[in-house]
């Protein structure tokens, strides 16, 4: 048969089109065997890996910690594929709202205000704000006693909200940091007097940084806080799966295993 130049062109176009279709199909085959991802895609988990023992950066640059193990364990029970990304605190919150982040896990306290923007799983950890101060500083018992002092907090966290509750919004001694570690650094160097942050995290930093000239002060009036895993408001499909997974890991012993690994004494 005679094949003219136009037919040749047609055949090669057809061939390219077939290749393209095969390549697309092949990509889909890359997903883990048997895994179903919610609405057909890998779930992006955002975190702020500056909050040990809940999340920090491993030496290889991947987020690691209690929250990371927990979300991976939860995902496994639900056959969800997850990818954990260090986004930072503010970008995690923004990402949840704009859809670039599906799940936020970062020791996030469930608050009424946040519930307006996000949906949370059932609580998975109980925390409290504490005050970190140098031992030689005049004794205080509660956040209200810090009036007149320079106080460091991670911006946009419940530590900030607690200080504002007692000393007023716009309190001039309040200094916001991107990460808790920055606030602790400033306290060590005498640029601020105190840090207010979550108890287990402050304790972990004390150990890691070998801070022995500081005290942790528990304000007995500070309310207990509950950590929850956040999704975009209304993402019921994903929230239900996370809640199911959380129940499963609490029942199958995995939660306790993770707890003991990162918080066990
Ligand atoms: N529990 C506090 C809050 O929700 C602080 C959380 C900060 N987490 C972090 N990964 N930096 O406001």
Structure explained in plain terms:
The protein is α/β, with parallel strands linked by helices and 265 residues long. The termini are far apart. The protein folds into 2 domains: 43-124 and 228-263, Periplasmic binding protein-like II (D-Maltodextrin-Binding Protein, domain 2, 3-Layer(aba) Sandwich), CATH 3.40.190.10; 127-224, Periplasmic binding protein-like II (D-Maltodextrin-Binding Protein, domain 2, 3-Layer(aba) Sandwich), CATH 3.40.190.10. The longest helix is centred in the first third of the chain and has 24 residues, at 5-28. The strands form 4 sheets. Strands 5-1-6-15-7 form a 5-stranded mixed sheet, sandwiched between helices. A 5-stranded mixed sheet has the order 11-10-12-9-13, with helices on both faces. The chain has a 3-stranded antiparallel sheet with strand order 2-3-4, with helices on one face. The chain contains 9 helices and 15 strands. Mean pLDDT is 89; it is low at 13-36. 38% of the residues are buried. β2 (50-51) and β3 (55-57) form a beta hairpin. α2 (66-77) crosses α8 (236-251) and α2 (66-77) packs antiparallel against α9. It has helices at 5-28, 66-77, 89-98, 112-115, 158-167, 180-188, 199-208, 236-251, 254-263, and strands at 43-47, 50-51, 55-57, 63-64, 82-86, 103-104, 118-120, 125-127, 129-134, 151-154, 174-177, 194-198, 214-218, 225-227, 230-232. The protein is globular, with a radius of gyration of 24 Å. Bound molecules: arginine. Arginine is lined by residues 48, 50-51, 55, 89, 106-109, 154, 157-158, 198.
């Amino acid at each position: 048969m005679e094949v003219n130049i136009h037919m040749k062109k047609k055949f090669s176009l057809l061939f390219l089109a077939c290749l393209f279709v095969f390549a697309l199909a092949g990509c889909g085959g890359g997903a883990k065997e048997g895994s179903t991802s919610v609405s057909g895609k890998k779930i992006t988990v955002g975190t702020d890996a500056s909050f040990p023992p809940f999340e920090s950066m491993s030496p290889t640059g991947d987020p690691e910690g209690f929250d990371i193990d927990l979300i991976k364990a939860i995902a496994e029970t639900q056959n969800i594929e997850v990818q954990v990304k260090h986004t930072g605190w503010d970008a995690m919150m923004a990402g949840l709202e704009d859809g670039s982040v599906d799940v936020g896990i970062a020791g996030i306290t469930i608050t009424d205000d946040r519930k307006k923007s996000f949906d949370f799983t059932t609580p998975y950890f109980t925390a409290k704000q504490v005050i970190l101060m140098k031992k030689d500083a005049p004794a205080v018992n509660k956040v209200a006693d810090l009036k007149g002092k320079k106080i460091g907090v991670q911006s946009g966290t419940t530590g900030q909200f607690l200080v504002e509750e007692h000393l007023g919004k716009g309190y001039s001694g309040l200094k916001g940091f991107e990460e808790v570690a920055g606030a602790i650094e400033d306290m060590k160097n005498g640029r601020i007097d105190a840090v207010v942050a979550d108890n287990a995290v402050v304790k972990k930093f004390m150990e890691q940084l070998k801070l022995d000239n500081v005290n942790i002060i528990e304000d007995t009036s500070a309310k207990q806080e509950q950590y929850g895993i956040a999704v975009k408001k209304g993402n019921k499909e994903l929230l239900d799966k996370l809640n199911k997974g959380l129940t499963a890991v609490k029942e199958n012993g995995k939660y306790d295993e993770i707890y003991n690994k990162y918080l066990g004494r």
